[in-house]
Amino acid sequence: MKVTMTVNGKERSAETEGRTLLSEYLREGLRLTGTHVGCDTSQCGACLVHVDGQPAKACTVLAQDCEGAEVTTIEGMANADGSLSRIQQAFQDHHGLQCGFCTPGMVMAAAALLKDNPQPTEADVRHYLEGNICRCTGYHNIVKSVLAASGQSVEPVAAE
Amino acid sequence: MYNFELVKPSSVADAVSALQGEDAQALGGGQTLLPTMKARLAQMETLVSLSHIDEIKGVCTDDQGRLCVGGGTTHAAAAEALSGYPALASLAARIGDPAVRARGTIGGSLANDDPSACWPAGALGSGATIVAVGSGGSREIAADDFFQGMFTTALDEGEIITEVKFPVPEKAAYEKFLQPASRFPLVAAFVAKFSDGVRVAITGASQDGVFRWTEAEQALSSNFSADAVTGLAAPDGSGMISDLHGSGDYRAHLVRVMTARAVTAAS
């Protein structure tokens, strides 16, 4: 069955089965391989995307359930001129990634947080990122990056 | 995952009729069922998605003052809409992680009845009423009758939860000892003080799933203080879940600790 949804502002379609996950639809159907599949058991958050403005682990959503939805992936995060978004730039500036595998999910989670809470505290950031696992354990700089992206000083975090 | 046909009804009536089919299963937010299916621990011909039924989403107040949460309401939406019952809103706001809360539903959680899930404690601790609709029509099930053991409820085959009605207590709190890897509680206590008595529901501990700790309820009904709980013997650890995260005796100990903390938080 062909499923159509708006992905990063463009209408896209791909063939699916009932069991096709949103992560498979994006990666294999649309070749948008920025959405990473780390655990495939809903634990790690590397596959986090936005579905109708809400964070969702794409490995735990059925593609056919997203027919007609507005989906944003990491490929949709850069600015229109191709430069990095504020959040992506903050991750680069503050070394918020080591191997980079979890980064798409971290950036999408950060974007979801900052949309609802533009000035989060460090505790807010750590709490919100509980569903995203960084196997390099680089959480400290990830938290700094998110705080920097919100326009706040990262000095208190850096001093730890 | 084994393949299946996904159907997406937009009304409760259509969902009930789709569930009458051979080997059909309801899908709430999918945050438990989909991982289970990926592990090939569940298999069905037809999966009936309940995510597109607007009539079972949202929170309202009935003429008895109860907060009525639609079965298809997500944890995140419930957390926002339950400002009239802060302990319950706080329970919803601490389930899993933000992505899980944005998709998982109260109806799915109650129907699944995981022995460590949060909503069963909130429903049993509040003395909620669960509204279920099936081919025989609609019926109301008291939380005391609904939970019948680990992953076992009073729901009949093909019935779906359309609404959960929560009476609002004078005071309440939910205290959760987090198991940080699963984000489920290792043990959690929901304590609610009503004008006619106190209810204490415990999740994460018993091999029989969520239960009321009646000794604590009696003690708290005459003296609503943490001391009333710490003076009690912990429940028997032999019927408690025992795994690499904690022995049955450890969980039994936590039952008392978390109940006392909940009483302090509610006071």
TrEMBL record, chain A:
Transport is among the record's keywords: no
Residue span(s) of domain 2Fe-2S ferredoxin-type: 1-77
SUPFAM superfamilies assigned: 2Fe-2S ferredoxin-like (SSF54292), CO dehydrogenase ISP C-domain like (SSF47741)
Pfam families given in the database record: Fer2 (PF00111), Fer2_2 (PF01799)
EC number: 1.2.99.2
Keyword Iron-sulfur: yes
Cross-referenced InterPro entries: 2Fe-2S-bd (IPR002888), 2Fe-2S-bd_dom_sf (IPR036884), 2Fe-2S_ferredoxin-like_sf (IPR036010), 2Fe-2S_ferredoxin-type (IPR001041), Beta-grasp_dom_sf (IPR012675), Diverse_Oxidoreductases (IPR051452)
Molecular function per GO: 2 iron, 2 sulfur cluster binding; metal ion binding; oxidoreductase activity
Keywords carried by this UniProt record: 2Fe-2S, Iron, Iron-sulfur, Metal-binding, Oxidoreductase
Protein name, per record: CutS_1 protein
Protein species of origin: Jannaschia aquimarina
TrEMBL record, chain B:
Keywords carried by this UniProt record: FAD, Flavoprotein, Oxidoreductase
Keyword Flavoprotein: yes
Gene that produces this protein: cutM
Enzyme class: oxidoreductase
Annotated PANTHER family: XANTHINE DEHYDROGENASE SUBUNIT C-RELATED
Species classification: Bacteria, Pseudomonadati, Pseudomonadota, Alphaproteobacteria, Rhodobacterales
Molecular-function annotations in GO: FAD binding; oxidoreductase activity
Entry protein name: CutM protein
Gene3D superfamilies for the chain: 3.30.465.10, CO dehydrogenase flavoprotein, C-terminal domain, Uridine Diphospho-n-acetylenolpyruvylglucosamine Reductase, domain 2
Domain FAD-binding PCMH-type: 1-171
EC number(s) per entry: 1.2.99.2
